[in-house]
């Protein structure tokens, strides 16, 4: 957190937003606009919204009783693992606050005890189901057989088309999509497009030489089989 904004300062801002009747998505968006990189994560905003809704008044940390926990405490390690099982995008700061140890201790648990690394998502065009993958495999195999029979001329006769939403913004940053995973595990995936505040549908057709048509569908138009007739 930047020196000009303490945790209590940010929580006070969230409490003010809550009292204004704002919901977590709006609170998070406004905090990003005002605080920039110092803004809390969306999970933190939702957590404090829930606490205020349950009647919490204080923005201070809860008092902790008993002996302070250390990073080598198996109870702490287990708690961190449980929190990550619930949401692998939690930051060290969030885990430290929930568990009650320092940020450095959490980082030690993650990297040295649990042997995890923070891995960023890999962009893919779509997140496909098993059935969709099979359909694409069947179609590709059919095209490959025709190519072997008909040669290069077959490629010039293919016209493909698709519809896609073009969004004005993607609210999730690369850092926000990163997850704590085992060191040798593959990177997680997410679809490139994520719904933003404004969007417009484009219909595109193309062949082996390039784009044949790029059409922006008027707002409010239903795109179905009749639309293409």
Could you list some keywords that capture this structure?
about 230 residues, alpha+beta, 8 helices, 7 strands, Arc Repressor Mutant, subunit A, 3 domains, three-stranded antiparallel sheet, single chain, two-stranded antiparallel ribbon, about 40% helix
Q: Describe it for me?
A:
- This protein is α+β, with helices and mostly antiparallel strands and 229 residues long.
- The chain folds into three domains: 1-62, Orthogonal Bundle (Arc Repressor Mutant, subunit A); 64-114, Arc Repressor Mutant, subunit A (Orthogonal Bundle), CATH 1.10.10; 124-128 and 158-228, no CATH class.
- It has eight helices and seven strands; from the N terminus they run ααααααββααβββββ.
- The chain has helices at residues 7-19, 24-35, 42-53, 74-86, 92-99, 103-113, 130-150, 153-156, and strands at 116-119, 122-124, 160-167, 179-182, 189-191, 199-207, 210-216.
- The strands form three sheets. The chain has a three-stranded antiparallel beta sheet with strand order 3-6-7, with no helix packed on it. The chain has a two-stranded antiparallel ribbon with strand order 1-4.
- A hairpin with a 2-residue loop joins strand 6 (199-207) and strand 7.
- The radius of gyration is 25 Å and the shape is flat.
- The mean pLDDT is 82.
